[in-house]
Design a protein that fits this description.
By secondary structure, the chain is an alpha/beta fold. It has 6 helices and 10 strands; from the N terminus they run βαβαβαααββαβββββ. Strands 1, 2, 6, 7, 8, 9 and 10 form a 7-stranded mixed beta sheet that branches. Strands 3-5-4 form a 3-stranded antiparallel beta sheet.
């Protein structure tokens, strides 16, 4: 079985960013995606311009999240909108602020964000496997130790990040993604599970 420090399932914005972050910390990273192309939804986001984040003050940003935005206090305490801006600018993507604090690449091209993230994960030697659908999470003694792919291959890991996205744009591959049901783990339906 091939072994990695971190396996990330999902090659969208969160999976790409998680790959960069983990590899920058020296982790041996494997990025898996069920589709044939990484960053598909990211490339069309914001009408093809990629609204990376918003520069509102944290309190105002949370107040503008539909429903109950209070659940964002804990994540924002670790990685907030200013952290997102610093992350992308640190990769060399120049950003501009537009009305209501919306942040876009200066060149108005979402593909720039995708290309930059892909270049960075390649520079950091992240292993990329597309057309690799995860069939199950491997658990031993109550600990996640890997994933099993539909083709039967088993891949070991010390840490697993599920970043499979939501159902908003199914043609990009972000349909509901169910894994973990064989080991009595919570079923994953998009989003994140660590």
């Amino acid at each position: 079985m091939d072994n990695y420090d971190v396996i990330i399932v999902g090659g969208g914005p969160s999976g790409l960013m998680a790959s960069v972050a983990a590899a920058q910390q020296g982790a041996h990273v494997l990025l898996l995606d069920k589709g044939n192309k990484l960053g598909r939804k990211l490339a069309i986001s914001g009408g093809g311009r990629c609204n990376v984040t918003n520069r509102m003050e944290r309190k105002q940003l949370i107040e503008n999240i539909p429903g109950n935005g209070r659940f964002m206090h804990s994540p924002f305490a670790v990685f907030d909108n200013e952290s997102i801006i610093a992350f992308f600018e640190g990769l060399g993507i120049r950003l501009k602020e537009e009305d209501r604090g919306r942040m876009f690449p200066v060149n108005d091209k979402a593909q720039t964000v995708v290309d930059t993230l892909l270049a960075q994960i390649r520079k950091l030697d992240v292993t990329i496997r597309t057309n690799a659908r995860v069939a199950d999470i491997i658990v031993e003694d109550g600990q996640v130790v890997g994933v099993a792919l539909e083709d039967g291959q088993r891949l070991g890991t010390k840490a697993l990040i599920i970043a499979t996205g939501g159902k908003s744009v199914p043609h990009t591959g972000s349909a509901v993604y169910l894994i973990g049901t064989k080991n009595n783990l919570p079923t994953i339906q998009g989003g994140y599970f660590m």
